[in-house]
Design a protein that fits this description.
The protein has two domains: 236 residues, Roll (T-fold), CATH 3.10.520; 95 residues, Orthogonal Bundle (T-fold), CATH 1.10.3980.10. It contains eleven helices and 18 strands. The chain is globular and about 55 Å long. GO terms for molecular function: transferase activity.
Length: 349
């Protein structure tokens, strides 16, 4: 069995691209090097780069906010988080939450609803069985998996906005915010940077890319779309974005291989197995990273046809789909900002 984690690939790609955008700036702009700091939080390497500020305290404040979010929402800490307490109270009683934890749960339930359960934040029991992304990754016992599937049902997550409480109605249910918390953290980082006067920045939370403003030359940022079959610095094309987030989900991010078959981390809540619907990757352009996060997983599991239909029903959201037969499908808005760089893939009209 072979275990890999390739989320760092996108980080290397994005920052090599954005650094090259400084070419052609005025001498004054060229002399002002970007300020970059990184940290490992939320289970991934995070990098924040400021292009018009040199105050490290600004980035430090952003990292402090991410740590606060992680403390409240992680399920992978010895110290119980609010989500851990919610899971431990399943089938028993409601749990009081902070405003931000409640907001993320509310958003997660929203995407569970509009995806018809193809995105389900109560998928925690299934995620735990597979353990993909850890040294314990393995195919679950079919009977145990079948029993655990009975615990996956976002309708049994009750939220009370007036009291800021949540309850899992059935014992042993578990919420997992791994598919949406990073997006929220990216949005919160952007808010902090804006409060400190930052206008030009790149925020990268393990592949959740959020761009602030334009680059310092006034042009859009160039963000690479990873080739899902080449887990290195290869991409199928670039998108030009300003004040947008680009979030990608794909079969290359976290997976393990057993008996010649790849098992990736994007699990289908109704079967309990990795989604297998002809998609290799999905990229979302949105205003908020939490929306890009929730949608990239939702439409990946929905598949091309249903996923495209969902995206086209929403405002200010665009999507690119990469199929396993190396074809690219895009919404009209995505196509307008996309430049293909890898001719192995065929862009479909």
């Amino acid at each position: 069995m072979r275990l890999r984690n390739h989320r760092l690939v996108k980080i290397i790609l994005i920052f090599s691209l954005t650094a090259s955008l400084l070419i052609g700036c005025s001498p004054k702009e060229q002399a002002k090097a970007p300020l970059t700091k990184s940290n490992y939080l939320l289970g991934t390497l995070i990098e924040i780069t400021l292009y018009d500020h040199q105050d490290e305290k600004t980035i430090d404040a952003a990292f402090d906010r991410i740590r606060e979010i992680e403390t409240k929402m992680t399920i992978n800490s010895e110290n119980p988080s609010q989500i851990t307490k919610l899971n431990d109270a399943s089938g028993s009683h409601e749990v009081e939450l902070s405003e931000d934890t409640f907001y993320v749960l509310e958003k997660g339930k929203y995407y569970s609803e509009i995806s018809g359960g193809e995105f389900d934040i109560t998928i925690g029991p299934i995620v735990k069985l597979w353990n993909i992304g850890t040294e314990y990754a393995a195919i679950p016992d079919p009977q145990i998996l079948a029993d655990s599937l009975k615990l996956v049902d976002y309708n049994k997550l009750t939220l009370n906005k007036d009291k800021l409480t949540a309850k899992l109605e059935a014992e042993a249910m578990k919420v997992d915010l791994g598919a949406i918390a990073k997006g929220y953290a990216a949005d919160e980082v952007a808010s902090i940077l804006r409060d400190h006067g930052v206008k030009h920045a790149i925020i990268n939370l393990g592949g959740n890319i959020l761009t602030m403003g334009s680059n310092v030359s006034g042009n859009p940022w160039k963000i690479g779309i990873q080739d899902p079959y080449h887990p290195r610095n290869d991409y199928i094309g670039i998108v030009n974005v300003t004040d947008k987030t680009v979030v990608t989900s794909g079969i290359y991010e976290r997976y393990f291989e057993q008996d010649g078959k790849r098992y990736h981390h994007i699990l289908e809540p109704k079967t309990g197995y990795p989604a297998d619907n002809g998609l290799a990757g999905v990229s979302i352009i949105a205003d908020k990273s939490i929306d890009g996060d929730g949608l990239s997983t939702s439409v990946f599991v929905l598949g091309l046809e249903k996923g495209m239909k969902l995206i086209e029903s929403l405002d200010n959201v665009e999507a690119l789909f990469i199929t396993t037969d190396k074809k690219i499908y895009m919404t009209k808005g995505f196509k307008a900002v996309f430049t293909q760089t890898n001719n192995e893939y065929k862009v479909m009209e």
